[in-house]
Amino acid sequence: MSKYFSESELACKCCGQLPAGGMGERLLQVLDAIREAVGSPVSLSCAYRCPEHNAEVGGVPNSYHIQGIAADVLVPDGMSVDELASIAEQCGAKGIGRYYSQEFVHVDTRGYEARWEE
Ligand SMILES: [Zn+2]
Ligand SMILES: [Zn+2]
After folding, report:
1. How far is the CA of 39 from the centre of ligand 2 (A)?
2. What is the pLDDT of residue 1?
3. What's the gap in Å between 110 CA and the centre of ligand 1?
4. What CA–CA distance (Å, rounded) separates 39 from 12?
5. Which ligand does the CA of 65 lie closest to?
6. Span from the CA of 59 to the centroid of ligand 2 (angstroms)
7. pLDDT reported for residue 21
8. CA of residue 39 to ligand 1 center, whole Å
């Protein structure tokens, strides 16, 4: 379980479902660590996506969001995308995507490091 994020914040935005096996433990640890490092509440634009919702928003079919090991973290007021991305890095995220125009950072806990930006 996450210390800071409720199930409703992690659930799919379209249907309120969570993955069958629950959200990835490692992801929850990373999200809690990010929340602590930021020092104030952070919002998620999405975490789990059911396959239908994922397709709707144009996610890749095997998205880490569908696997319950990814979340898009909105950049808190007064912080930059780069600052949040480096916090995510320090907190142990494996996949880190910087979305400058939408002002969020994608974090996931896949088995290898990946970095990208849009
Ligand atoms: Zn859904
Ligand atoms: Zn994402």
Report:
1. 22
2. 84
3. 21
4. 26
5. 2
6. 8
7. 92
8. 30
Q: Return the CATH architecture of domain 7-117.
A: 2-Layer Sandwich (3.30)
Q: Return d(Cα 112, Cα 14) in angstroms, integer.
A: 29
- Return the amino acid letter for 43: S
Parse the chain into domains and list their residue ranges: 7-117
Among all bound ligands, the one having the nearest atom to the CA of 96 is: 2
Which residues sit opposite 104 in a β-bridge? 74, 99
**Ligand 1: centre distance to CA 42 (Å):** 22
List the pLDDT tens digit at each of the 118 positions of the chain. Answer: 899 999 999 999 999 999 999 999 999 999 999 999 999 999 999 999 999 999 999 999 999 999 999 999 999 999 999 999 999 999 999 999 999 999 999 999 999 999 999 9
Percent with pLDDT over 90 in the chain: 96
Query: 116, 98 in Cβ contact below 8 A?
Result: yes
Task: Identify the CA nearest to 88 among candidates 103, 72, 77, 101.
Answer: 72
Ligand 2 mean position to 71 CA, how many Å?
A: 5
